[in-house]
Design goal:
Oligomer: heterodimer
Strand order of the largest sheet of chain A: 7-4-2-11-22
Strand content of chain A: 15-25%
Number of strands of chain B: 0
Distance between the termini of chain A: 15 Å
Distance between the termini of chain B: 54 Å
Order of helices and strands of chain B: HHHHH
Shape of chain B: globular
Shape of chain A: globular
Helix content of chain B: over 70%
Strand content of chain B: under 5%
Helix content of chain A: 25-40%
Structural class of chain B: mainly alpha
Number of strands of chain A: 24
Radius of gyration of chain A: 22 Å
Number of helices of chain A: 11
Number of helices of chain B: 5
Largest interface: A-B, 37 and 28 residues
Radius of gyration of chain B: 17 Å
Chain lengths: 440, 118
């Protein structure tokens, strides 16, 4: 069982599955799972996304008799890593849509409502429908909210080809509208604006990917000469990990993509087709024919109101105060966080969720069994950084900004490779689905 | 959890090819393999003439396999980037070539029968 656990949650095991390789065979050969831990604990999981569904399945398998409640108001589950493929015309919106319920294990209580109030002192959540849920353990896996209102002059209804506006983070449908806008831009030409917000964000590689993909699509169409690509970075780098920043900068140089540092989108003027950016030298205004808008990202209001957030860090964003290695809340020992909501230096990706889940599972199940959990999260994050249709760089890194390649010497992390593209396009969703089911 | 390995692997491949295509391919592979075993047992020998034609057909199987992967994945030869890409590509080619060679051998054996080889 120890072998099974190690393999199932090792990076190599995970990426091996993503490659559709033999790692899966090794996983199953290791033996039977341990007998489920008997308990009558009441466990509430807020959120049924990648983290919530995945941990619900793991806990259902590991615990016998626990009352597990999953709270999520959205009946749809979104495969968010697929949004980039939709926004580049390779998939339709339905590629990323499934039902939340289909991923949840039998025996859990699924409440199809959002939380209205969370009281960690009383160990209680009240739902938007007025239901009161008391818990012994709480797992916060709400994900984050996209603060579209923070972009002045913008409304999500503006997204689409008629205005030249993309907003591919918003939803599968918006990702498809974003493709229509990108398709039109790469047909007709003009100035294309890309960039990212100044807050923490999910998948910090995605703003870069869509820029690379747009450039590649324009080149393939033979229209590169009439398209200008401008990438606006919020910081003095193009990616938070220095070695990856340099590689991205090199590729942008090679492909004649203009990049500007410390340009944060403040607002747009649809009529004038201009965008205002905040810079250290003041505000600047630029014309665009196409713009991809990714707004600031924050914890949901109910979490920010609950007192779980860091008091002195990310004060405008509200990520919860968890230990960066155990993911247990610093002030409420019966609360854990999984996924985007965690106030840790890195890891707002589905790949990070994969590594959050076994850590939380271990500490929670161990505590119920009267032991100390031992697993630690080291900040692992992975991003198949697509550089063109058909190629990607499989960048993986940790809290220390170290590259942590799953296949050192075989799949080079900073090399644009076909196999990395195959993993992204073909195998990642299947592996993600297996993770939701608690099987990978 | 007992079906952990099989279910995960099947999930991955069903997702890659689509459920029906994947299982159809599995069925075809199983039928061809059984056919190969059948003709070997029936004939009690490898026929070198059939084997020669099987070998000559290998490049076609390899090319078809590579074409199939390219068609399924929105990618092409210009996307081959590093050594691992060439290894994967050659692996796909080799698998297609060997699979097709076995198919050609089996089809010849079943159509011509044992005597045709003399």
């Amino acid at each position: 069982m120890i072998d099974l656990q190690k393999l199932a949650t090792s990076r190599r095991g995970f990426m091996g599955l993503a490659a559709g390789g033999g790692a899966a065979i090794a996983l199953g050969a290791s033996g039977q799972p341990a007998r489920a831990q008997r308990t009558n604990a009441r466990i509430l999981i807020m959120g049924a996304g990648a983290g919530g569904a995945g941990i619900a399945n793991r806990l259902a398998a590991r615990l016998d008799g626990a009352q597990i409640t999953v709270l999520d108001g959205r009946p749809q589950h979104w495969y968010q890593p697929g949004f980039t493929l939709i926004a580049s015309g390779l998939r339709k919106a339905d590629y990323a849509i499934s039902s939340t319920e289909q991923w949840l294990p039998r025996g859990v209580n699924y409440v199809n409502e959002y939380a209205a109030e969370l009281d960690p002192e009383a160990n209680r959540v009240t739902t938007t429908g007025g239901q009161r849920i008391d818990y012994d353990y709480l797992i916060v896996a709400t994900g984050l909210t996209l603060d579209w209102d923070a972009i002045e002059g913008f409304d999500l209804s503006m997204a689409g080809p008629q205005n030249g506006i993309a907003a591919h983070y918003a939803s599968p449908e918006h990702a498809e509208l974003s493709w229509q806008a990108l398709d039109k831009f790469t047909d007709e030409g003009g100035i294309g604006m890309f960039g990212r917000p100044a807050t923490e964000m999910k998948c910090a590689g995605a703003p870069v990917k869509i820029c690379f993909l747009g450039e590649d699509i324009a080149t393939t169409k033979g229209n590169r000469g009439k398209c200008e690509f401008i990438y606006n970075a919020q910081a003095t780098n193009l990616f938070g990990v220095p070695v990856i920043h340099h590689r991205v900068r090199q590729i942008m140089d090679e492909r004649n993509i203009t990049y500007r540092y410390q340009h944060v989108l403040k607002g747009i003027d649809l009529g004038a087709k201009t965008a205002t950016y905040t810079t250290p030298e003041g505000e600047v205004s630029d014309k665009w024919d196409f713009i991809n808008i990714i707004p600031p990202q924050r914890a949901p209001q109910v979490i920010r109101d609950s007192g779980l957030s860091w008091a002195e860090r990310w004060v405008d964003q509200g990520w919860i105060e968890v230990d960066m290695h155990t993911l247990r809340h610093a002030r409420y020992a019966n609360i854990f966080g999984i996924g985007d909501i965690n106030g840790v230096p890195k890891g707002k990706t589905a790949a990070s969720v994969k590594f959050h889940i076994p850590v939380v599972e271990d500490h929670l199940v161990s505590e119920i069994a009267g032991r100390e959990g031992t697993r630690r999260y080291d900040g692992y994050t992975s991003c198949p950084l697509i550089t063109r249709i058909g190629r990607a760089m499989l960048v993986e890194f940790d809290y220390q900004d170290n590259l942590t390649p799953s296949f050192p010497g075989v799949i080079a992390p900073l090399e644009e490779l076909w196999i990395s593209w195959l993993m992204k396009e073909v195998a990642l969703k299947a592996t993600y689905n297996a993770m939701l089911r608690g099987r990978a | 959890m007992e079906d952990f390995t099989l279910m995960t692997l099947l999930t991955v491949f069903e997702e890659i090819f689509g459920r029906w295509l994947f299982w159809a391919m599995v069925a075809v592979a199983v039928i061809i393999t059984l056919g190969y075993i059948y003709v070997l047992v029936r004939d009690r020998a490898m026929s070198m003439r059939k084997f020669l034609l099987a070998q000559l057909s290998m490049p076609f199987g390899g090319i078809a396999a590579v074409g199939f992967v390219m068609m399924m994945t929105n990618s092409g030869f210009s996307d081959i980037g590093g050594p691992i890409d060439w290894i994967v590509l050659l692996g796909v080619f080799a698998a297609g070539a060997v699979g097709f060679a076995i198919l050609v051998y089996v089809v010849q054996s079943l159509m011509r029968g044992k005597e045709a080889d003399i």
